[in-house]
Specification:
By secondary structure, the chain is an alpha+beta fold. The chain has helices at residues 2-23, 39-88, 124-130, 179-188, 191-203, and strands spanning 111-113, 116-118, 157-160, 165-172, 177-178, 222-229. The longest helix is centred in the N-terminal third of the chain and has 50 residues, at 39-88. The chain is elongated.
Length: 238
Amino acid sequence: MSFIIQVMAIVWQANCRIAAKKYFCYNVLTMKNINGFTLVELIIGICVIGILTGIATISYSKFRENAYDAAAKETLHQVETAFKSYVAGGNKVPLRYYKPLGFYDSPGGGYTDLGIKIFNGGGIGRAMHQVNYLPDNLLNTLKNGPTKDTSLKNNIGYRECGKNKVFFYIEVYNDGIEQKQMRKKMDDLKCSEKTDLDWQAEHGVTRYAGGWGGGDLATRPRYIVAEIDFDNESLDSD
């Protein structure tokens, strides 16, 4: 930004010198004073100002995106640290209980699968906040973020990969990985199948689980991702 301001100052000084010079000159043909700028000079000046304005706008937009991505990284790191402490503190992380989206949502909703209520525990962020591992205003840092994935606007995603691995993810402007890369990673790890099979084992039911539903988003959002492995052997959903 300082470079742009310097360039604009130089252009302004040059125009001022031209104006001063023309004021004291005479037209050889008419012998009359020449005041002000010619049409060509005005057009050139307007073009230069337009170009500099465009550069300044692009630079500011890039600066804002980079600032958001940096804030998102710090937020994700805070969530990762809090979750590890939450599990180490003996708190339960029941499978298919917390909502994949709605980080601070209150309990309720969800639906019934094979006669068992699922995704009705609200947000995992709310659970961590209730035992003082996270503040309740963490999403404030994610305002004015990208909206290619509308479900993640001012939100933090949560995915399970069996009983011993979870993912937290935040949409960003420039860093991270594309959604299709994240989906492929979870498909390669067979996260949906592992989660459902472990959940079935807990409740004594049997059913085949599919992969990540919905496919890839055409908008191609990008995410930064925290992949966390932990010991959940002693935890259950009872």
